[in-house]
Amino acid sequence: MRALVLVCSLKRSPAPSSSELLGREILAALADHDVDGEVIRVVDHDVKYGVTADEGSGDAWPSIRTKLLGCDILVIATPIWMGQPASVCKVVLERLDAEIRESTMYGKVAVVGVVGNEDGAHHVTAEVYQALNDVGFTVPAAGGTYWVGEAMGKVDYADAGPKPDTTGTATKTLAANAAHLAKLLNDSPYPSS
Q: pLDDT tens, 11-22?
């Protein structure tokens, strides 16, 4: 099975990104369940604004979409900004809107990772889940993992030290449930409507 991690950090590479770190940790946990994949930091690509599969000349979304169509599991990794998913995450969700009428995401699993120095991880996760479900993705039980530091704090996820009993446990559960559900959907797809 294959996973695609879309990192919705506002920071371009090679700047450190807590969202990318969490996304890579999710991918590593999925590898324990025979899932491989890749990480794409969305801001490193010229993804145009819009709600179609291809917004024309220079749009990088079609190549990302091709990779998405070839995966079983989508991971959205986003920071929290002002209690909301990052604007980059919202652009990704808007681009996925093109898939509603196509049913191309049915049978695919989606999970969410959230980081930030303010409250709102459950709210952000819920917003992203609902959008992904509208497009046709299936969300597994405990399909979210997050870390939030002190509000207005200066400690990043990478600097917060080991979190094996908190974010680490949630990430492992997310990976196990996502891989299990993806296998079930591969073996027994949704019926056509």
A: 999 999 999 999
| CATH label of the domain that carries residue 67 | 3.40.50.360
Q: What is the pTM of this model?
A: 0.96
Please report the DSSP string for 85-148 in residue order: E-HHHHHHHHHHGGGTTTTTTTT-EEEEEEEESSS-HHHHHHHHHHHHHHHT-BPPTT-EEEEE
Please check the confidence at residue 101 and state whether its pLDDT lies above 80. Answer: yes
Among 33, 65, 35, 34, CA closest to 47: 65
* Domains in the chain, number: 1
Which residue range is the domain that position 167 belongs to?
A: 2-186
Asked whether residue 41 is domain-assigned, the answer is yes
Summarize pLDDT for 142-153 with one digit per residue, the tens.
Answer: 999 999 988 878
